[in-house]
Specification:
single chain; alpha/beta; Rossmann fold; Arc Repressor Mutant, subunit A; 3 domains; 5-stranded parallel β-sheet; two-stranded antiparallel ribbon; 17 helices; binds adenosine-5'-diphosphate; binds magnesium ion
Length: 385
């Protein structure tokens, strides 16, 4: 069981003392935004995009001079939902500043003004709208942007999991948003996204509305030389010990993936009493538990992958990292049909973001998924003593 004193944060906001590194990335983010540009932040899921943006929002340079908004659109499937979440976030932010701002926002959003409730205790408007209350999302969206453009301070708007808009059924959303964003003088935008392929296409293909509209920051793993001492230090700050070698093993196993490292050490810390040393077996048990608890999720994912792609997925997972996946050696070793079958399968797997290629090296995007496959189909040994 995790305790309140656990310094390995895995949910919610991270206080600066528990936030590891990101020195260069946060400088770049703050500099880009405060100089009037927009920024795209791309990384695999749970590498730390949201954490980075929120960490930067707390920098005094930003906190003291800007209104900041953060909208996670991962689960949205239409412009209506997008507009709803955006409106709710803008309202909540202004309402937390002053009564006057809450009122002026409601009045400005004429298309839905009548739908706001009033809190009988405070006499303040409340955002108790239903999705269906937004019957003209394009128009409401325009009103929200217009309101922001007249705010008494500049604004920073972060859309998290922005690639989602490319999946909405309406096919002109990118163009609509781009037009608004281009017009706003006093707003800058952060577009964070986990699906590299889709994000890159949106911002680097010349036919797309967002082409070249933002700088791109690829958020990589926190370097091992920084993460390992950070982990050891957090244990020591609570009267516990851990050998740097153990932290290094976990780092290597997950290729530096932030969430899995945080999660492993959150659990391992919880199982290490004060005055004790966190052992390899404690860490191993924590990883084992994490793998097992994702069982249903991974099976569900596999059930949606066609067999040819699955064979290749397993092959890459078993190898960990591999280069020449269309070579005769690789095809034969893993009983794959042919080089061309591998080629078309890997294309699909990359489109769905199951597989990532960096410098011609292929690996599974989700490192825990790779471990799980190894546990089920492979040798199932990790973290050797
Ligand atoms: N720099 C960091 N130091 C410590 N923990 C972090 C850091 N960045 C992210 N985390 C943790 O890693 C997990 C994933 O981060 P998150 O920002 O939600 O990723 P993303 O937005 O890329 O999906 C969260 O549990 C968060 O608490
Ligand atoms: Mg996120």
């Amino acid at each position: 069981m995790a305790t309140k004193n656990n310094p390995f944060i895995v949910t919610g906001k991270i206080a600066p003392e528990y936030f590891c590194d990101r020195v260069i990335e946060s400088k770049r983010l703050v500099k880009t935004i405060t100089n009037g540009r927009n920024l795209v932040v791309i990384s695999p899921r749970r590498m730390g995009k949201t954490g980075l943006v929120q960490y930067c929002y707390d920098h005094s340079e930003i906190a003291d001079n800007y209104y900041t908004f953060f909208i996670d659109i991962l689960h949205t499937t239409s412009l209506r939902e997008f507009t709803y979440l955006f409106g709710r976030e803008v309202f909540a932010t202004f309402a937390s500043k002053s009564r006057k701002m809450a009122m002026s926002f409601v009045q400005a959003i004429k298309s839905i003004s009548g739908k706001f409730g009033i809190d009988p205790m405070t006499a303040l408007p409340t955002f108790n709208l239903q999705l269906g209350d937004i019957d003209r999302p394009e128009y409401t969206l325009e009103e929200i942007f217009r309101y922001l453009s007249e705010a008494d301070k500049p604004c920073i708007v972060a859309f998290d999991e922005f690639q989602q808009i490319a999946k909405y059924p309406e096919n002109n959303i990118e163009a609509i948003l781009r037009t608004h964003i281009q017009k706003l003088q006093n707003c800058n935008f952060i577009f964070a996204g986990s699906e590299r392929h889709m994000m890159q296409e949106m911002f680097t293909v010349s036919a797309r509305p967002f082409y070249l509209s933002a700088d791109i920051l690829e958020l990589n793993a926190i370097p091992m030389e920084i993460y390992v001492p950070f982990i050891v230090g957090l244990f020591e700050s609570r009267g516990r010990n851990i050998m740097p070698e153990i932290a290094t093993k976990v780092y290597t196993l997950f290729k530096g993936h932030t969430y899995y490292i945080q999660k492993t050490f959150n659990e391992a810390f919880a199982n290490t009493a004060e005055g004790e040393t966190c052992t390899l077996s404690v860490v191993q048990a924590a990883i084992e538990e994490m793998i097992d608890s994702s069982d249903t999720l991974f099976r569900e994912i596999l059930s949606n992958i066609p067999e040819k792609q699955k064979s290749l997925l397993y092959a890459i997972a078993l190898e960990g990292e591999c280069r020449h996946i269309t070579s005769a050696v690789f095809v034969r070793k893993h009983n794959l049909i042919s080089a061309s079958a591998v080629q078309s399968a890997v294309k699909k797997l990359m489109e769905k973001d199951h597989v990532t290629v960096v410098n011609k090296v292929y690996s599974l995007t989700n490192k825990l998924f790779a471990l799980w496959i190894n546990k089920i189909y492979g040798i199932g040994i990790y973290l050797p003593e």
